[in-house]
Amino acid sequence: MTHISVTVDGTAYEDEVEPRLLLVHYLRDRLGLTGTPIGCDTSNCGACTVELDGVSVKSCTVLAVQADGSEVTTVQGLAPDGEWTPLQRAFHERHALQCGYCTPGMLMAARDLLRENPHPSPEEVRRALEGNLCRCTGYQNIVRAVLSAAEESDGSGATGERSAASAQEVTA
Amino acid sequence: MIPPAFDYVRPAGVEEAVRALADAGEDAKVLAGGQSLLPLLRLRLAFPELVVDVGRIPELRGVREDGDTLVIGALTTHHDVVHDPLVRRHAGLLAQATEAVADPAVRHRGTLGGSLAHADPAGDLPAVALALDAELVAQGPGGRRAIPAREFFTDYLQTTLAPDELLVEIRVPKRDGWGFRYEKFARVAQSWAMVGVAALVRRDDGHIAEARVGLTNMGATPLRATAAEEALAGAGDAGAVARAAESAAEGTRPSRDASASPEYRAHLARVLTKRAVLAAAGMG
Asked: Phi and psi for A78 in degrees, rounded to 5?
C-alpha cells in the first residue's frame, strides 16, 4: 500500500491505496464521487475526464498514486455553492445532452478548452472535444453550448439571447 | 478493468531511477505519463513486478538549446511540446505531429520520451524522430549514451534500450528554413494512424534540394522512405513530386488489420507522401 494525499473538489484526503488503483476507481469507489462515470475503460471515450492540477486528464488512465500531492476537480466540484458555471448553464439551455453519460467528461474537456482558448471557433471546439465520445451522437448541441458559454463569459456584455442567436447561426 | 498488482517506487532523481531499474532486472517498467503503459496494464498485456514512476523527476522535463540542437527532456508532455516556442521555431514538424497525437487530455499526460520508448509503429512520433534524425539519450548504470533514432527502433514495441536504461532526453537538430508537414490518415478522430507520413523538405532555387520522409505504421518499426527521398532530390514541380512519391512504399512491410490491407496501406503511403511533400515544399 502507498500513502497518498490528494485534494478532491476542495476536500483534502489522506489514504492508503494499492499502486494499481486507477484514479477513477479511487474517486468513485473510495470517495463515493460517482459523478465521474466510467465509459469505455480504454482511454477512448473521455467520460471519466477530470482535472488534475488544472488540466484535463482521463482518470481511467491515471493511477491514484500519480495524483499524490495533487488537486483533482471532478464535475461535482464545478458548482460548490450550487451556482452553475456559465458552461453548465449553457449545456442546460442548449440541451447539450441526451442520455447524459458523456456530459461530465464533456464539461471538463470544454472547461479545459475555454481556459486555453476563450474564443474558440466551432472547428476548434470540435477538435478540443475529439477525445470525448457521445454515444447518442448529440454533438451539435454540445458544440453550440460550448460556443454559447464562450460568448457569455466574453465580458462584452452579450446577453443570453444574443449569444443563443449567434450560436444557432454557427451551425445553421 | 483493473491492472495486475505491482510494486511501485517513485524515485526523486535519474540515478535513483536507474538503480531501481537495475535492481529489478527484466521485470520493471518505467511509468512516465502512463498513456501507453496504463492501457497495457489494464488489458493485462504487461505484468511488471515493479513500476518505476519517473513522473516527478524535474530535470527530465523541459526544452533547451544546445548550439544547433534542441534538447527535449524525455518527460516533456505532448502538450508542452506543442506549445514550446523553441520547438515551434526549430522543429515545427515535431510540434505539428505532436498535435495529432490522441486528444488533449492524453496530450496533457503523455510524454515525448514515453511515446518513443513505447515504440509503437502506429504512434506518430517515432517516424518524426526518424525524419528529424533525432538522437535519443539513455542513462544506465554505466553513464549516458546517445542512440541515433535510426538504430533505436528494433521491432514492434522493441527498442535498443536495455532494461536498466532510462531514456532521459531527445536531441533534435534544428531544421530552420526547412518546410515540413505531418499527414495522418485515421479512421476516426483521435485514433491511431492507419498510415502517417512525416516530411521535411529543404528547397534551393525552386527545387527540392533534400527531402526526408518518415513513415508511420508501414512495418514493425517506423521507417524512412529512402527510395522516395532519393527520387525527390531535384524535383522542381508537383508532377515530379508525384512521380517520386510513387516509390514511398518500397521496402516497407505494412500489416493487415481490421481497418486496412497491406496494399491499401501502401497506397496511402504513396498518396500521403505526395501530399506531405507538396505541402512541405510549398508546392501544394
From this structure: -75, -30
pLDDT 10s digits, B215-273: 999 999 999 999 999 999 999 999 999 999 999 999 999 999 998 999 999 999 999 99
Q: Name the minimum distance, in Å, from the CA of B75 to any CA of chain A.
A: 14
CA B29 to chain centre: 19
Burial code (b: 16+ CB inside 10 Å, e: under 16) for B221-242 equals: bbbbbebbbebbeebeeeebbb
- CATH superfamily for B179-281 is CO dehydrogenase flavoprotein, C-terminal domain (3.30.390.50)
In chain A, which segments carry CATH 1.10.150.120?
Answer: 86-171
A73 touches chain B (CB under 8 A): no
What is the residue extent of each domain of chain B? 7-53, 61-172, 179-281
Cell of A149: 458559454
Q: Which residues of B touch A (CB under 8 A)?
A: 1-8, 10, 31, 34-35, 38-39, 41-42, 51, 53, 55, 79, 102-106, 108-109, 189-190
CATH topology for A2-77? Ubiquitin-like (UB roll) (3.10.20)
Cα separation of the two ends of chain B:
46
Give the closest of B1, B7, B53 to A41, CB-based: B1
Q: Does domain A86-171 have CATH number 3.40.50.2300?
A: no
CATH architecture of the region B61-172: 2-Layer Sandwich (3.30)
ipTM value for the complex: 0.95
Query: pLDDT tens digits, residue range B41-53?
Result: 999 999 999 999 9
